[in-house]
Amino acid sequence: MSAVVIIEHPVAGNCLRILRDKQTATEAFRREMKRLGLLLAVEATRDIACELEPVVTPLDQEIYCPRLRDGRILLVPILRAGLGLVDSFLDILPAAKVAHIGVARDHETFQAVAYLDTVPERCGDFDRVFVVDPMLATGNSSIKTLELITAKGYPPEQITLVCALAVEQGIARVHKSFPEIKIVTAVIDPGLNEHAYIVPGLGDAGDRLNLI
User: Fold this and answer.
1) Quick one: average pLDDT of 150-162?
2) Confidence (pLDDT) at 96
3) Which of 111, 150, 110, 138 is nearest to 201 (CA)?
């Protein structure tokens, strides 16, 4: 299993085109982020373990089909931009639980400071954890989030980091601290500017999702 998975899909490319456009209004930005999030969710959940369960078809034929135990899946959006991807995951994992981690970025040092953590201590209740955040830039917010989650006993190999855009710098920093973490993204952009924003990127995802 590759540590980094990039979605290769024309619909994802079209979503990114709209998300990158500075003329895209808030409503359209939210819509395209959710659409892209659905593709990310489908790819990120490709390796979820299922149990086979017998069902009887209308032709009175018994067949064993996969049963998804989505109630044992935990979604962790990094506030606030991560909320833009949660509904996409819940569309295909309706019984998944949702916890929140809030991380603020110091705009001078670019360091991440956590201000909220609702991840349950009961790590044994969950088989997989999906951390969602549209942007993987410096990696500081992702690393802080992963530190908080793994400190509660969640195995890193059960955690997947899902983002719309990433850069190699952020990916490398995450894997230096957490080499077991799988990363799923729609695209890897060339790098960061002097303000640690992804370029060409799509601006501040949190601001564009929430207008302010």
Assistant:
1) 97
2) 97
3) 138
Q: Could you give the CA distance from residue 87 to residue 91 in angstroms, rounded to a whole number?
A: 6
Across all residues in the chain, what is the average pLDDT?
Answer: 94
- The per-residue pLDDT for 148 is 97
State the total domains in the chain.
Answer: 1
More reliable by pLDDT, 188 or 110: 188
**Over residues 130-143, mean pLDDT:** 95
d(CA 117, CA 119): 6
Output the pLDDT for position 212: 57
Instruction: For residue 185, indicate whether it is catalytic.
Output: no
Distance of alpha carbon 45 from alpha carbon 95, whole angstroms = 14
Range of the structural domain that residue 183 is part of: 4-210
This model's pTM is above 0.90 = yes
Instruction: Please check the confidence at residue 1 and state whether its pLDDT lies above 70.
Output: no
State the CATH number of the domain containing residue 22. Answer: 3.40.50.2020
> 87, 117, 127, 204: which is the annotated catalytic residue?
204
Q: Identify the active-site residue in 47, 91, 125, 207.
A: 207
Asked about 105 being catalytic, the answer comes back as yes
Active site residue 204: yes
Q: Of these residues, 46, 69, 109, 122, which one is catalytic? A: 109
Q: Residue 200: is the preceding peptide bond cis (ω within 30°)?
A: yes
**Choosing from 87, 105, 117, 127, which is the catalytic residue?**
105
Residue 80 appears among annotated catalytic residues: no
